[in-house]
């Protein structure tokens, strides 16, 4: 059995890494220097899973792991793209006449951003050459796609003078373009939490994102202190390497079920129900009464997860804020159990990793992201993460699963221009 691999964030300055890696690839492929380099982080959601598209609450942090894009504008409407993952495979697309789903593969994400901005009326967005380099693990539930779309959105904002990236309000427009790129061009259903984290998180903070549609960009975000070191903790992320897909229909099925449940209950979204249950004198009874109004067991399970998960977000913030790590861990555990039993989006790999982390002394552990593969997070004492990851890797080997990877999550900064 081999030693588990820890994935380190790029510090820059090394060949093929960070801004220098994106510039080097750009120069080699296109024979010129880029106009600049922009980056955006992946994210880990601490708690509040599958709540964003139900107008609920979630609590992501930005990872130190980032995607870097080097760009230069063109005089026409053509786009040329290359990635460090396939440096000899250049993609070419014409923005003129481009329709939804008109691009396939990884290029649909950055090209989709340009298309979405033009659809939103930003006709000055034209063609560009781009080279991409990333240390955000792909297919891990850590939002490599949002890191790609958000770095591209900020780059296009700068290149074509849209004037959006310098304010929260403007960044919301870029977030909308990134979401539309994923939904309409790449065909991956996302609710906006990933892109909001990548565009709006701050170092040392978690982002309490309130997804109610009636809230403005200034009202829907609160920066919450999340100082692991001060609590003597670390947040271990284990990528199970069970492939994480959002365009296979499972995500969309659950989203449709939630929308239909809201219609049956006579509300605009399930957040309204969650708020009503929360303020009732007997929340357990109130929740049961809501569930009894739904037509089938599957719908009842899905709705129960959403309502209880929305409630766990603020309880986690309060527990961590007062230093009650035991309670914060219990909320992690309750979240995973609900995702496993009610929302049914875990996998054997995710469940095994969570079970091992708990047995090895984690205060709490849960899957993070859309599910059906991807990663787990575990709240552990500082210095315990590597040993725990190795034990998980040993158990994966015995079970015949793919070898997992791991990283330490530190709350980091949002999308920015690098040079």
TrEMBL record:
PROSITE patterns attached to this UniProt entry: GALACTOKINASE (PS00106), GHMP_KINASES_ATP (PS00627)
Transmembrane segments annotated in the record for this chain: none
Galactokinase N-terminal domain boundaries: 25-73
Single GO MF annotation: metal ion binding
Domain GHMP kinase C-terminal: 317-386
EC code: 2.7.1.6
Keyword ATP-binding tagged: yes
Record Pfam families: GalKase_gal_bdg, GHMP_kinases_C, GHMP_kinases_N
Gene Ontology, cellular component aspect: cytosol
Residue stretches making up the GHMP kinase N-terminal domain: 109-199
One record GO biological process: galactose metabolic process
Main enzyme class: transferase
Keywords tagged on the record: ATP-binding, Carbohydrate metabolism, Galactose metabolism, Kinase, Magnesium, Metal-binding, Nucleotide-binding, Transferase
Plastid listed as a keyword: no
Family affiliation: Belongs to the GHMP kinase family. GalK subfamily.
Protein name, per record: Galactokinase
Species annotation: Bifidobacterium [indicum] DSM 20214 = LMG 11587
């Amino acid at each position: 059995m081999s030693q588990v691999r820890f994935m380190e964030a790029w510090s820059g300055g090394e060949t093929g890494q960070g801004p220098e890696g994106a510039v080097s690839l750009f120069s080699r492929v296109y024979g010129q220097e880029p106009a600049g380099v922009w980056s955006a982080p992946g994210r880990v959601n601490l708690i509040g899973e599958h709540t964003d598209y139900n107008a609920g609450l979630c609590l992501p942090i930005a990872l130190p792991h980032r995607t870097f894009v080097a760009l230069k504008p063109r005089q026409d409407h053509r786009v040329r793209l290359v990635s460090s993952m396939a440096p000899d495979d250049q993609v070419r697309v014409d923005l003129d006449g481009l329709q939804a789903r008109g691009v396939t593969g990884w290029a649909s994400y950055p090209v989709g951003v340009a298309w979405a901005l033009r659809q939103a009326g930003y006709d000055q967005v034209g063609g560009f050459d781009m080279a991409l380099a990333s240390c955000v693990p792909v297919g891990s539930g850590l939002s490599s796609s949002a890191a790609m779309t958000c770095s591209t959105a900020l780059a296009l904002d700068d290149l074509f003078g849209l004037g959006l990236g310098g304010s929260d309000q403007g960044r919301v427009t870029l977030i909308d373009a990134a979401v539309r790129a994923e939904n309409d061009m790449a065909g991956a259903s996302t609710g906006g939490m990933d892109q909001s984290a990548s565009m709006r998180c701050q170092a040392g903070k978690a982002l309490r994102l309130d997804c109610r549609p009636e809230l403005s960009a200034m009202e829907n975000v609160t920066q919450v202190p999340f100082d692991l070191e001060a609590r003597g903790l670390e947040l271990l992320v284990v990528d199970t390497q069970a492939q994480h897909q959002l365009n296979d229909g499972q995500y969309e099925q659950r989203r449709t079920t939630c929308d239909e449940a809201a219609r049956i209950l006579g509300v605009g979204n399930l957040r309204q129900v969650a708020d009503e249950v929360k303020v009732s004198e007997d929340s357990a009874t109130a929740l049961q009464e809501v569930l009894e109004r739904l037509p089938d067991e599957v719908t009842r399970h899905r709705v129960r997860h959403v309502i209880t998960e929305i409630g766990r977000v603020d309880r986690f913030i309060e527990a961590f804020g007062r230093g009650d790590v035991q309670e914060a861990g219990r909320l992690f555990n309750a979240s995973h159990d609900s995702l496993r039993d009610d929302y049914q989006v875990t996998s054997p790999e995710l469940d095994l990793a969570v079970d091992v982390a708990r047995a090895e002394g984690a205060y709490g552990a849960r899957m993070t992201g859309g599910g059906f593969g991807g990663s787990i997070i575990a709240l552990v004492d500082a210095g315990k993460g590597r040993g725990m990851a190795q034990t998980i890797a040993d158990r994966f080997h015995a079970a015949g699963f793919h070898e997992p990877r791991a990283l330490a999550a530190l709350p980091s900064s949002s999308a920015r221009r690098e040079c």
